[in-house]
Each structure stands twice: as C-alpha cells, then as structure tokens.
Amino acid sequence: MTDMPVGERKQLAPPVDDSGPFGWARKHLFSSWGNALTTIVLTVAMAWILSWFLEWALFTANFTASTGSECRGGGACWALIREKARLIFFGTFPYDQQWRPFFAVVIMLAMLIMTSDRRMWRPWRLAAIWSIGSFFTFLLMFGQLHIPLSLFLVIALIVGLVGMAFRKGIGSMGEFIGYRVLAFVGLVGLSLQFVGIMPNWKLPIAPFSYVETGLWGGIPVTIILATYGLLFAFPYGILLALGRRSNLPLIKGLCVGFIELIRGVPLISLLIMASVMLPLFLPTGVTFDKFLRAQVAVILFAGAYIAEIIRGGLQSLPKGQFEAADAMGLNYVQKTSLIILPQALRVVIPPLINTFIGFFKDTSLVLIIGIFDFLNTANQALVDPAWAGYPGEVYLFAAFVYFVFCYSMSRYSKYLEIELNKGTRR
Hints:
Layout: H1 20-28, H2 33-59, H3 79-83, H4 85-90, H5 99-116, H6 123-142, E1 145-148, H7 149-167, H8 173-195, E2 202-205, E3 217-218, H9 219-244, H10 249-263, H11 267-281, H12 290-316, H13 319-327, H14 332-347, H15 349-362, E4 372-373, H16 374-380, H17 391-420
Parallel strand pairs: 3-4
Antiparallel strand pairs: 1-2
C-alpha cells in the first residue's frame, strides 16, 4: 500500500539531457566523482605537456639558423630539417639530379591514389596504371632502361594463360583464340631464346645519366620497397594460401613448409641471406643487384604473412558458397577469383592493412645490408658535426612522415571496410 492520496502521482525529476557536447561530457567524462577527478587530472597533465611542446616546437624554435651552434639554448632546431632536407628525402642521389626521385615519388603516389579509387578496379585499368607508372618511375630513378624482349614474351605468356583460365566458357570464341595466340607466342619465343635460336634483343631507352641503386636513398627507397614488395607479395600470398588448402598432398606440403619456414625467421636474417649468402651459391660472374635482392627478401617475407591472413578469410566462408559456385558450372579459377576470393578478401581487410603498415615501417631494416631508406638517411643528417646534437628534431620529423603514410592507409582501410560491407550490415 502507498501513503499517497488517491488520484495524485509522484513527481519525478526531469531526465538528464545527454544531447549536445555538454550532455556527452556529462555522460562520458563526469558521470561519477571518480571519473570527474580522473578527467580533470588528465586534462591538466595534457595541457601542461601540450604547452611545453608548443613552447619548444614553435614559440622558441629556430627556423633560420645556418649552423647548429646558433640553435643552442633555444627551442627546437628546425633549421636542421631545412638544411638537410635533400639528404633526408633523397639520400646520396646526385644533387643536380634530385628532381628525378622527386617526380618518381609523385608518380608512385599518383598510382596509389588512382588505385584506391574503386572506379579503377578493372584489370586493364590497373594494368595500364601500374605498367605506365612503373615504367616512368624506374626510368627516372635509373635514368636508363634496357628492356629485353624476354620481358614482353613473359607478359604475353602470362596474359594468355590467365585470360584462357578466366574467360573459358564465358568469353567469346574470338577472345579465347586471342588469349591462346598470346600464350603460344610467349611460349614459343621463350623456348627459342632458351635454346639460343632467338637472340634476346633489348630496347634501349636512355634519356638521362645512369644512377646505380647504391646511390639511391630516402623516401623513394622506402616507397619502392614497400609498394612493389607488397604488390608482388599479394598475389604470391594468395597462391600460397590456396596451395595450403589444396587437396594435393605435395602442393599442400610445399606451401605449408615454405610458409612456416619464412614465418619462423626474422626479416633481418632473410636480408642477410640475400645479401651475403646468396652470392656464394651463384656461378662465377653471375650477380644480382643488392637492391633487387632486398626487394625479393621483402616479397618472400611479406607473402608468407599475407598467405596466412588470406587463409583465415577463406576458412571463414561457409561451405555453401563453394557448393553454389560448383553448381554454376564454374571451373576452379573462375570459382576462386569471382566467388570465393572477393568475399574472403573483404573479411580480412583490417589485418591486411595492418600487415601493409607493418611492412612499410619494416623497410628501415634494409640498413643491415647497406641500403639507406628514409629513416636511415634522416639519421645520416646527424653525422655532420655542424648539426650534431639535435636527434629529437630529426626523429620527430621522420615520425611525422611515417605517421602521415600509416594513418592514410588506416583511414583508407576504414573507408574500404565500410564500402564493401554495405550489403551485409544490419
């Protein structure tokens, strides 16, 4: 029973307004005495740290000093970055030719931006973007290119075989014959070159002076190693993942053994093997460029990790997807590329981008074999005695550049995850 008179209602307090910035702060930051005290303490601490940092980095910083001695006793010495900018970004590339790596970086960034546009996700568009962009990138970096005939034959063979596998049963007869002719020309040409009947002609393109890879450094090296390493590691990792799930014991055993072997050793060991041990097993007079050996080591290492990520995506798919693809009469290549892989890759976007970000930063390990990427050329800026004693500014600037690249990849991953899951969200 209640003591309230009949016909009267208990007056309740009005509900707390949780809308707007004040409502959000009341709900998340000041919901209790403990949360309020923690919020105030952390806010004061962050304000103190931020005020100190701004005082050091901006208000008392020196942007115009000509030597390190002029920066003594003040704030940050950003004049060091201004003075050593070319060394940090382009390493020991010939000074009067450093416009070449600059435009090479611009081209690579343009390729990445265009590739991130879903309207460009067509095989021929992507092939045109990366073939044209890569040609001009390496032409600018090397200065001279000698393109062998065997490269065109290999491309013809690959395009022909892939086209026949993808378009079998769903393409026109003329299209299928065209792919078969391409594969035939590539196979016959490579066979004639192998037996020595056809010479390996080269197409020389030499508009600039030649610059060897030993003089490369800075941000172009980082972007080339990361971009082309992951570009080749991605399809290679897909093949390893599919091979690990194969019903053929030999293929499955080889893929499992290779993946576990590569994942069981650090990247530094692969770089040392590629730089020091590999030349010992090559015939006399046969050698490979050190930069190329490092690139191959990065590809092998990244491919093993990507394979395990993609295998997880393949295992997450229900069995009905495989059975539905078989019921449509698709062959293995068509079923995998059109039905299975798109769904598996959509599931594993976050771990894939996480791997890409990790390998972008791991390119700094190539210093162990004498290749100077962006972080290592930034470190070289401190060797000059006139600017010694300011490592904080150099490493903070390098961290900012790495953050810009990594944060951009992270945000694109979030955008891609949302876009590709629009049809499955509830």
